[in-house]
Amino acid sequence: MKLTELTLTQLRDGLRQGSITSVEATQAMLARIVDVDNDIRSYLTITDEMALEQAASADARRAQGEDTPLLGVPIAVKDIIATQGVPTTAGSKILDGFIPPYDAFVVDQLKAAGAVILGKTNTDEFAMGSSTENSAFVTTSNPWDTERVPGGSSGGSAAAVAARLAFAALGTDTGGSVRQPASFCGVVGLRPTYGRMSRWGVVAFASSLDQVGPFGRTVADCTALFQATAGYDRRDSTSLDVPVPDFEAVLTGDIRGLRVGVPKEYFISGIEPEVEAAVRAAIAQMEQLGAEIVEISLPHTRYALPVYYLIAPAEASANLARYDGIRYGPRVDGENMIESVKRTRSLFGPEVKRRIMLGTYALSTGYYDEYYGRALKVRTLIKQDFVEAFKQVDIIATPTSPTTAFKIGDRADDPLGMYLADIFTLSLNLSAGCGLSLPCGFDSQGLPIGLQLIGDTLQEAKILNAAHAYEQSTAWHQQLPLTGAS
Amino acid sequence: MTEYEAVIGLEIHAELMTASKMFCGCRVVDSVTAPPNTATCPVCLGMPGMLPVINKRAVELAIRVGLALNCTIQRHNIFARKNYFYPDLPKSYQISQYELPLALDGHLDIELASGETKRIDIRRVHLEEDTGKLTHLDKDSQFPQGGTLVDYNRSGVPLLEIVSEPNIRSGEEARAYAVKIRQILRYLEVNSGDMEKGVFRVEPNISLRPAGTETFGTRTELKNLNSFRALADGTAYELVRQAEILDAGGQVVQETRGWNESKRLTFSQRSKEEAEDYRYFPEPDLPPLEITDEWVESVKLTLPELPDTKRARYMADFELSAYDASVLVEERAVANWFEHTLAVSDVDPAPSPKSIANWMINDLFRLMNEHKQGVADIKFEPAAFVQLIGLVENNTVNNNTAKDVLTEMYQSGRPAAEIIQAKGLAQISDETAIFEIISQVIRENPDTVAAYLSGKDKLRGWFVGQVMKATKGKANPEIVNRRLAEQLDQLK
Question: Which of helix, strand or coil describes residue A50?
Fold first, then answer.
């Protein structure tokens, strides 16, 4: 088997046993990136020199008898997560060339765990999008069909993991930006509970919704990266000061007696029949494994999309107002300061401008109560739906997205159509729960279908174990896209 | 002509004297003297992905102020983003408080010139962060293009906003209220009160309405007031200006006006149409700040005795006049110094608090004023001051000599007894010695004696002067007066 086809856990075993070195694994990945990423375009920046140094250092540390959770494991990081000394663009021209003087908390965690950082992956501009088409630099291709999108906004990370261009990767999920691309690319992606991962150093889109999440080819891989990066950080006042359980130890594969809720509101018209069939089959499979299936209701589901598209743009309109070219980032000169700031802001792409305007409007005097204020109230109702649901069930199973990957350009001029790609993932971000997507089949065109499992606050262990149990009873995760096969 | 009633509310911004900034670990430095941009970090520069963490100490100081201003401290606090663009505001929003501020519904009693007391209601006190500072350059040789420099040292410094209800009725009342707020903040050791450096800023909202009516007129907001005098004068000017507009049948324009100190007038800075919509919304980066009863109680224990209470106590316990008591409590450091003198126990007989107060107000303050110094600059301890007064009261030195000794103490810091000994200034209270000197003065001035005896009683003072001159002022005046009367009377 090729080095690059190993899962993260297989690689880690090899590194521990001494059968593989980190430098070998890193070189293999870097070589594959050179070979293949012209077709996929998952990376915006490749940090090859730094990666090889980190790999050599990992090997040296291991030779000294050291072992840390990800020692020597090559990982990719979404370009919205700050990396000290390495460009961090958030997929935007307005941060083109910006090199942060700090690492994000999760990057600190990666370094402390001994990981090797291969580079920075593509994203929709400021994570606003579901296809990477809103990236100011490139559109990433889906490794299963390069004419299709990988999903977004963490499409670069999802595609890199699917195409074996990284053993795992970090993304961020504000409305589904980890789960939806995981679904489109046939990998596992976790959106942890809000506050489980510090947002320190993550370029803000919508502060009350943003959360970092890991991608892996398997549930175990995803869990390993989650384990290494989760944790409390006093620099983020919204991060939760709670212990991080040993998630890798809870992957027993035993889900007998687990109550799985199936919300009727998630099987609506508009969902592709093949997607619905695959998800229903996956739920049946979980029942086979001993889970108890319970039909439930999340009655306010249909409000999630409008609520999300008021709250997220409102927060974004404030978060993005700082990009004026005065302190950092590119500056477009004008006759005077105000003119210069206006011209600099023209570097924002159309979707970002659209959301800034939406959010500014929703917060304006005279409209606040009607829009933003009301959205906050409905958000409480959506949260309450989940609180009620988790009184009856342990986890909830739904499709991740109503469709499989769509063609590049198909929805580029249809913002509403694009927003619908996240219709099943948004509710979770508005609540206090956690969720993941894992492969549960392919449609007739060979495109991956994702199963979403949702857990209660801080109950990542339950959804990870349920996902692991299902995955171990199927072979979906063993199918690889043919990327780079000659 | 219509008689108007002035309706004035004050917004006061006061930086809090914490060691670090409101939402990051940067030091709080003197924004006038510190080299620009030397106390900044990615958080207070608003760099991508940086997050705020509330400075607990700032909250504590704010609670202190809320309590001192008789406010209710809100247990559930929400921070909010106030959105507006300006190059000195790195995030393009200021983290402030909007709907649920820290303290509500307080009041403060001020003394009017008439001697009456007036209660000014305080609407709210809330916490926020200060902005950076802009410097607009002249097009000189160093910067031929001109331009604007920005210094972010002040960005993120904890800032308290104290908002009064509009029940202030004149420039003088506005001034009295602001002076008293400043005094309290200094007592609480939360703010230096330096208006020149802008750490204490006062902005009045001013409008007029026909006397006896209840609805508010259109208001203007006054800025750039760098002194209490500017506050009183600017407000007074604005009241006259508005009255003239109304009398002429015109309408006051709602706007922000600046005070031009040299021209002594207000000018339009920004109209309502240009005013920003701040689009306040709850700050998602900060969870609600919950203030427990225990926290409030523990802060209450740290509150010092406030000036009004202190003043009443001085008047009741030490029989000080209202004026003297006010002077002593004006600054906490002065009151502390005074109270230290009261604790001195090894001087016998112990001078009365009233006597010490007189010496402080009449003599010590005069020296401090002459040297433009404060109580912290005094080179001797309160105990040394009491010892000097004790030497007067036990007749070791007379009053006039003591004043000279105090001047010397003020300059050198040496103890009174040492100065008196070194210079031979001890008072002559020896009756025999004084008898001899008086006899000598009488012998040497027969003509004056004759004049006195012929009925010119006023010459008695001249004889006292001669005796004092002969003793270089050291003679005990009480003995001199008594003996002189006796000896002159004997000649009658």
Answer: helix
Q: Which of A445, A442, A435, A452 is nearest to A478 (CA)?
A: A442
Q: Which residues contact B323 (CB under 8 A, 6 or more apart)?
A: none
- pLDDT band, very low/low/confident/very high, at A414 (cuts 50, 70, 90): confident
A141 vs A153, A177, A448, B60, CA distance in Å? 13, 16, 14, 54
Query: B304, B332 in Cβ contact below 8 A?
Result: yes
Chain A residues in contact with B81 (beta carbon < 8 A): 318
Residues 6+ apart with CB under 8 A from B312: B325
Global pTM value? 0.90
Confidence (pLDDT) at B1? 64
DSSP 8-state secondary structure symbol assigned to residue B253: P
Per CB-CB distance under 8 Å, the chain B contacts of A102 are: 42, 47, 49-50
Adjacent-strand bridge partners of B117? B111
| Catalytic residue check, A431 | no
The reply to whether residue A238 touches residue B90, judged by beta carbons under 8 angstroms, is: no
CA–CA gap between residue A402 and residue B314 (Å, rounded):
79
Nearest to B232 by CA among B286, B282, B280, B177: B177
pLDDT digit string, tens, across residues B351-408: 889 989 999 999 999 999 999 999 899 999 998 898 888 888 887 788 888 888 888 8
Residue A323 to residue A333: CA distance in whole angstroms: 14
Domain boundaries, chain A: 3-254
| b/e burial code for range B99-121 (CB count within 10 A of at least 16 → b) | ebbbbbebebebeeeeeeebebe
- Rounded Cα distance between B130 and B416, Å, is 49
Angle value at C-alpha A469, between A463 and A475, nearest 5 degrees: 120
List the structure tokens of A445.
């065109």
Residues in A touching B48 (Cβ below 8 Å)? 82, 88, 90, 95, 98, 100, 203-204, 322
Enumerate residue ranges in chain B where pLDDT < 70.
Answer: 1, 141, 272-274
Q: Could you give the angle at the alpha carbon of B289 between the alpha carbons of B284 and B292, nearest 5°?
A: 165
Domain B431-491 = CATH 3.40.50.720: no
pLDDT for res A485: 66
Pairing relationship of beta strands B4-15 and B158-164 according to DSSP bridges: antiparallel
Q: Which of B42, B63, B40 is nearest to B52 (CA)?
A: B42
Chain B nearest-CA residue for A373 = B281
Whether the pLDDT of residue A486 is over 60: the answer is no
CA distance A63 to A72: 12
Choose among A377, A210, A369, A193: nearest CA to A300: A377
Domain boundaries, chain B: 4-299, 307-423, 431-491
User: What span, in angstroms and rounded, lies between the C-alpha atoms of B9 and B123?
Assistant: 10
- Among B46, B54, B277, beta carbon nearest to A322: B46
Assigned CATH topology for domain A3-254: Amidase signature (AS) enzymes (3.90.1300)
Following DSSP, what letter does each residue of A94-119 receive, concatenated? Answer: GGTT---SS--HHHHHHHHTT-EEEE
Coil, helix or strand at residue B133: strand
> Which residues sit opposite B290 in a β-bridge?
B76
Q: B190 vs chain A: nearest CA distance in angstroms? A: 25
Is pLDDT of A134 > 70?
yes
DSSP A359-394: HHHHHSTTTTIIIIIHHHHHHHHHHHHHHHHHHH-S
Instruction: Give the three-class secondary structure for A14.
Output: helix
Task: For A235, name the nearest residue in chain B, comparing CA atoms only.
Answer: B53
Tell me the backbone φ, ψ of residue B377, rounded to 5 degrees.
-90, -10
A396: which 2 tokens?
């909830």
How large is the ipTM?
Answer: 0.96
